[in-house]
């Protein structure tokens, strides 16, 4: 069961991220673990750059449980894998000869 007090103090910082600043000790683990560098602090407030890919690493590793990221919707398009994308480009380039 979720603590109602904590639920009230969460604030949205992004369409998919909420943050409970009163419980955050600002260890910056979330900032450093984000693969797209979406999170940062401005003074005491967490700010999102609007680039969240909903990987939920920040939520998983936050020692204070202050970040919540909405899960991706089923069937949401995945990010292309770089090696597969590069292979497709190489194949396409080869067909033009």
Structural features, described:
Helices cover 31% and strands 16% of the residues. The chain has helices spanning 4-9, 29-33, 57-61, 82-95; strands at 11-12, 17-19, 39-42, 45-48, 67-69. It starts with a helix and ends with a helix. A hairpin with a 2-residue loop joins β3 and β4 (45-48). It has 4 helices and 5 strands, in the order αββαββαβα. It is an alpha+beta fold and 97 residues long.
Features:
97 residues; Alpha-Beta Plaits; 4 helices; alpha+beta; globular; two-stranded antiparallel sheet
Give me a quick take on this structure:
The chain has a single domain, classed as Alpha-Beta Plaits (2-Layer Sandwich), CATH 3.30.70.
Order of helices and strands: HEEHEEHEH
Our estimate of the beta-strand percent is: 15-25%
Counting DSSP E segments of at least 2 residues, the number of strands comes to 5
Calculate the terminal CA-CA distance, rounded to whole Å.
62 Å
Helicity, as a percent range: 25-40%
Output mean pLDDT: 82
Number of domains: 1
Uncertain spans: none
Biggest beta sheet summary: 3 strands, antiparallel
CATH overall fold name: Alpha-Beta Plaits
Supply the CATH class.
Answer: Alpha Beta
Summing up helix and strand content along with how strands pair, one would put the structural category as: alpha+beta
User: How would you write the strand order of the largest sheet?
Assistant: 1-2-5
Rg, please?
18 Å
């Amino acid at each position: 069961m979720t603590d109602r007090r904590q639920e009230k103090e969460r604030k949205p910082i992004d369409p998919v991220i909420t943050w409970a600043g009163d419980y955050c000790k600002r260890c910056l683990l979330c900032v450093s673990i984000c693969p797209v560098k979406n999170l940062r602090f401005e003074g005491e407030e967490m700010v999102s750059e609007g680039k969240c890919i909903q990987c939920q690493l920040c939520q998983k590793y936050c020692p204070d449980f202050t970040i919540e990221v909405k899960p991706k919707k089923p069937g949401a398009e995945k990010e292309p894998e770089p090696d597969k994308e590069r292979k497709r480009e190489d194949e396409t380039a080869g067909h033009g000869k």
